[in-house]
Amino acid sequence: MNDILIKADKINKTYKLFAEEINAVKNLDLEISRGELIAIMGPSGSGKTTLLDILGCLDRVSSGKLKVLNNDVSTLKESSLVKIRRVNIGFVFQEFLLIPTLTALENVELPLLFAKLPQERKIAVNLLQKVGLGSRVNHLPKQLSGGERQRVAIARALITSPKILFADEPTGNLDSKSGQQIFDIFKELNQKDGLTIVLTTHNYKLGLQAKRIIFLKDGRIVSKEESNLYV
Amino acid sequence: MKLLSVAFKNLQRKRIRTFLTIGGVAIAVAVLVSLMGFDTGYQKSLTNDIDKMGYQVLVTAKGCPYEAATLMLKGGGGLRYMEQSVYDKIAKDPRLERISPQLAATEFDKDRLNGQGGIVLYMGVSSSYLELKPWSKFKLGKWFSSDDADEVIIGYEAAELEQRVPGDQILIPNLNKVLKVVGVFERTGTQDDGIMFIPLKTAQRIFNLSGKLTGIGIKLKDIGSLGDFEESLYNEPGIQVISMAQVKGTIFNLVSSSKAMTNSVALIAILIAVIGVVNTILMSVFERTKEIGVMKAIGASRLDVFRIIWMETTLICVLGGILGDVIAILGTSIVEQIIRKVLPYAPAGKLVIITPELLLGSFLGAVAMGLIAGIYPAYRASSMRPVEAIRLGD
Fold it and tell me: Which of A23, A107, B125, B361 fits a disulfide with B129 by CB distance 3.0 to 4.6 angstroms?
């Protein structure tokens, strides 16, 4: 079994914002192996989120070659990307992005509905217990705190048993205590279940706890010194 | 959990907005049902009214045919008279099966309808009248004792209104004339129910119209000879021949011109409802850009998103269709009252007939409307790209 889950070969991403052409990711090479816990760090506008979107098959590269789980996704359309995404990849966002009309449990079950997988209530409840929300399964998002919402979002990302979990600034909207708690969940998932996790963060204290840190500046991978993040 | 419950829960998010949109659809459906129900009901009642006159041809004094048609059915002022000699002449025609002379007269009674005042229609008839209308049965009493007695037989509704039974007396106020009630007819469901019948000769005497008639009802042995028969009366001065088929046509024409108008009102109501639904759903799609983006990120396909939005629209129209049908059923009597006020001639009996087929048809129409209205918003939602929807959706 191939242990390299993601292989990026000179990938570029350019997009137009108003009249300006932005080169968010430049000639980037990257390999991600099974079992890694990677923190992508860098200043605002360094291309962290764009890189995460591309690696997570939410967006396409402009050029270069990208293989995700042995699929060449460089040229795939959204209709094909969604099929890869829905069973192999979990997403956690900075703003949690739960569906406000659905309960915690229903939010967790939603990806199963889209993936046309059987909706076994027990699995969803177990996941919510695992992230510490066993007593709040029937609460609506507005009845939960920020940290609790992010736990629901993590459970939602895990419901399809993905091979990789992507988290974009997962602690960015949380206080430092809840942030650390969320990060602890990621560490546990990585250590106990061997889940591959790629996350972006501004928070140096949290980022340092990852097994591997990738520093990004102007769309390129740079060394720790070059990144200026110490300053 | 199903896509449908995702759609349904979203509609509950902004209840007032959802309810107003459903209300718009409901009103359009209710208008449609009422108008189409009126169409059916009116034709049926009018046909019933005219068929139950018992004659195929009416001879009246010359005048406007519309006026004649209305007068014949309803009475009313401005009656025209013809000479009874015409009757004597026509009566000899061998093609006739039955013939019945009539003299209609109206009087205003200021005490009628609890002091509001109202017009009372008196109809002078001869014994042949009953032969033309074999279904007219006596509820109480019997026919006049003689052909010039000061007696009256009352139609069913008029009897209820006046609270009279045989043996009572009734006053024609303006003439200061007292008549004796000898009979009350059973309900026929036609205009006859509201009429006071008196012997023809009595009518000619008390209304001071001796030797005059307002109409002659005729039933031919063979309806095929109608054309010939009309032809033969063509040269008779001062009269016109109206066939009931003609009258029906005339009144339907009269109504259908206003129907075109009301139909376009219904059409506009439906159009506005559709636009309202499209607007509401589209607005709710744009408000949920991020949510739709995240649904796609966690695995929703274009088709999934399309179906959720489409279901929302359809749900609104289904609920609107049901509510509209309920409103239409509950509102029937109000619609009837309004129509009776506006129409030049409203037949007795139910004006608005709402059938199960009509209810089902309009409900399905509402569903179809939802399916059509949902296409564009659903398309817009399904073609959002996940990254843009999530990152730029603010």
Answer: B125
Tell me whether residues B294 and A85 touch, CB distance under 8 A.
no
pLDDT digits (tens, 9 = 90+) for A155-185: 999 999 999 999 999 999 999 999 999 999 9
Nearest Cα residue in chain A from B385: A78
Give the gap in angstroms from C-alpha A116 to the nearest C-alpha of chain B.
Answer: 10
Q: Count Cβ–Cβ pairs < 8 Å, chain A vs chain B.
A: 72
Residues 6 or more apart whose CB falls under 8 angstroms from that of B350 comprise: B41, B44, B45, B336
Task: Please tell me the pTM assigned to this model.
Answer: 0.75
User: How far is Cα B3 from Cα B22, in angstroms, rounded to an integer?
Assistant: 21
- Nearest Cα residue to A164 out of A227, A228, A85: A85
Q: Which of B166, B76, B80 is nearest to B120 (CA)?
A: B76
Residues 7-26 of B with CB under 8 A from A: 9-10, 12-13
Q: What domains lie within chain A, and their CATH numbers?
A: 4-222 (3.40.50.300)
CA distance B280 to chain A (A): 18
Residues 288-327, chain B: which have Cβ within 8 Å of A?
290-291, 293-302, 304
- Cα–Cα distance, B217 to B209 (Å, whole number): 19
Angle at B106 between CA B237 and CA B61, to 5 degrees: 10
- The segments of chain B whose pLDDT lies below 70 read 63-78, 113-115, 344-345, 393-394
Enumerate the residues of chain B whose CB falls inside 8 A of the CB of residue A78.
302, 385-386
Domain boundaries of chain B, sorted by first residue: 3-48+251-391, 63-237
Task: Give per-residue pLDDT as tens, B211-235.
Answer: 888 888 888 888 778 788 888 887 7
Q: Does B386 touch chain A (CB under 8 A)?
A: yes
